[in-house]
């Protein structure tokens, strides 16, 4: 979703009826809960709650996407296979050596994305040297 998360629709008939329509931009067209009618006097009170709901919804969507596009492996062959076959991030124990990253990049065009300490394994999945951190590897698109 880009731009404004909540749209307020007010037409001539709405003004006569004393209502407005709140439209959530994080929901698909005609999806349940996408639109709701609110009394004009209640709009200001409704907006904070609606924005909190939208934030929670967007966070849940982002978290589900991240989880479905991240996989951990401790097997070297599987690591390189996943880099070639799967879109997303591959989580491995890594040595942080420049030479190791260069070898991974040459073999798959993937590079490290971020590091977390400590490593969950003693050896680097990519090269077998001692691991110092967990790293996500992914390809740029």
Write the layout of secondary structure elements.
Blueprint: E1 6-9, H1 12-17, E2 19-24, E3 35-39, H2 43-68, E4 70-72, H3 76-85, E5 89-94, H4 98-108, E6 110-116, E7 133-139
Parallel strand pairs: 4-5
Antiparallel strand pairs: 1-2, 2-3, 5-7, 6-7
Query: Going across the major beta sheet, what is the strand order?
Result: 4-5-7-6
Low-confidence stretches: none
What number of domains? Answer: 2
> Strand pairing plus helix content: what structural class?
alpha+beta
Q: Separation of termini?
A: 20 Å
Beta-strand share of residues? 25-35%
Radius of gyration: 24 Å
Instruction: Kindly provide the name of the CATH class of the largest domain.
Output: Alpha Beta
| SSE pattern | EHEEHEHEHEE
What gross morphology would you assign? rod-shaped
Helix share of residues? 25-40%
Which CATH architecture of the largest domain is right?
A: 2-Layer Sandwich
Give a structural overview:
With 141 residues, the chain is an alpha+beta fold. It has four helices and seven strands. The strands form two sheets. It has a four-stranded mixed β-sheet.
How would you briefly describe this protein structure?
With 141 residues, the protein is an alpha+beta fold.
Question: Features of this protein?
Answer:
141 residues, alpha+beta, Translation Initiation Factor IF3, 2 domains, four-stranded mixed β-sheet, three-stranded antiparallel β-sheet, 27% strand, rod-shaped
């Amino acid at each position: 979703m880009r731009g404004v998360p909540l749209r307020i629709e007010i037409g001539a008939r709405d003004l006569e009826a004393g209502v407005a329509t709140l439209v959530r931009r994080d929901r698909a067209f005609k999806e349940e809960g996408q639109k709701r009618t609110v009394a004009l006097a209640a709009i200001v009170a409704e907006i904070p709650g609606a924005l909190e709901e939208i934030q929670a919804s967007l966070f849940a969507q982002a978290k589900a996407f991240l989880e479905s596009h991240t996989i951990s492996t401790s097997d070297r062959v599987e690591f390189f296979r996943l880099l070639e076959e799967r879109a997303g991030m591959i989580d491995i124990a890594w040595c942080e050596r420049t030479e190791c990253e260069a070898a991974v990049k040459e073999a798959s065009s993937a590079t490290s994305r971020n590091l977390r300490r400590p490593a969950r394994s003693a050896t680097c999945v990519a090269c077998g040297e001692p691991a110092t951190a967990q790293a996500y590897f992914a390809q740029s698109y």
